[in-house]
Amino acid sequence: MDAAARAVALEKASRFAASRHELLIGGRWSAARSGRTFDSYNPATKAKLATLAAADKADADLAVLAARAALEGPLAAQKVSERAKLLWRLADLVEGHADELAVLETLDNGKPLNEARNFDIPHAIEVIRYNAGWCTKLSGETIPLSGPGNWHAYTVREPVGVVAQIVPWNAPLAMAATKIAPALAAGCAVILKPAEQTPLTALRLGELILESGFPPGVVNIVPGFGETAGAALAAHPNVDKIAFTGSTEVGRLIARAATGNLKKVSLELGGKSPNVIFADADLERAIPGSAAAIFYNQGQSCTAGSRLFVQKNVFDRVIEGVAEETKKFKLGPGIDPANNQGPVVSKEQLDRVCGYLDSGKRDGAKAVVGGRKLDRPGYFVEPTVLVDVKPEMKVVREEIFGPVVTAIPFDSPDDVLSFANDTVYGLASAVWTRDISKAHQLAAKLKAGTVWINCYNIFDPVLPFGGYKQSGWGREMGYDAIELYTEVKSVCARI
Fold first, then answer.
1. Residues 183 and 278 in one domain
2. Around Cβ 271, how many Cβ atoms within 10 Å?
3. How many CB atoms lie within 10 A of CB 290?
4. pLDDT value for 308
5. Active centre residues (catalytic)
6. Cα separation, 274 vs 278, whole angstroms
7. Among 162, 272, 336, 439, which is least packed, fewest CB within 10 Å?
8. Could you tell me the pTM of the whole model?
């Protein structure tokens, strides 16, 4: 994005942020029933960015009614080919507004503009297009029965129904698209609750959804707080499925709330991902790759390579290299393309990260680089590499969700496997080695939903994504995501 395009996009995004922000329910924008509002802030400056309607239980009830009406009305009558056309049209509109959406994401979340423009927005576009292709391919099977008699037996795949989706603040538009697209491809009606810290791109997406021509109520968007709007949707008796991405702690609350009507639940939760570098790795790639693994998006990623395991005979070289990589980072407002590290998303998140830094220091960890927040406007904390850490330390065991990596030496593959799997999480992992046999042997034993070999943070709409253990239930992306939003019905007839 050149300077002229950036200026145009900034003007559009700023104008949108300053506009009136209401709830999208049943194809119309409206204030919250309570009349309450809340503010969102630019994390790079702490300045107020927007004022938004605050949804609560009454609004959730209306959104569910609208979604149910759409499910039983226009969606039931809609041809699957028309559904695919609408998704393609939406992807084209997102692509046409990519610069504006990237700037809006940066203002709202704080991430560097280049990250928003080169990953978040393209991922949203591609995941919508990928799922558009599934609309016409959701077929069942004919099944020969083994018992006596003449039978015609077959299966059909049907939409699960009304779906509530709660997305996080670390990749707001990419996460919204990743959840909405397969649900729409399957024929579901959606209620989306964006994170209260970063609601703006979801609302702009809502405008594009209306412009695309989706029937009223097919997608409803209700910004608000987790304790009110989110809790109401999770417990709602007329919601058939809830999909949540966020912390493991909140995931447990979602799962408990869903037991009222035993609605289906998919959860993409926390991580404490091991990133393993062997001495025979190509260190010219492994070192910058490992720095990016943890410091991308200011470490605010569920897949962040926050536990760096390095074979002992190259440990010092690797840690020195990762520390040197941090010197290439320029911290500042993400809207300036010269900056490649932005703030964390909020004061709450800054306090959380700094609390872990203090804990690590008290426990004896040493910061090779970083280790403090910056005294400037906004929520900035230095990229930090901690050594002299022990397995029992909080900084090693708990998800920090910030730019902090713990570095741990190891001797053998067996040693590192034991260390790597010693966690309640199991979302992602990586192995760096020139020995492809060793890489695949370790990949087979790592308890994680994704294993990257000689790379990190490679995502694609065709690749299933999700976690083992307390990192969640179910898989998003790929055909697995379609299965999250469909029911299989068996039909059997005597002939």
1. no
2. 30
3. 28
4. 98
5. 268, 302
6. 13
7. 336
8. 0.96
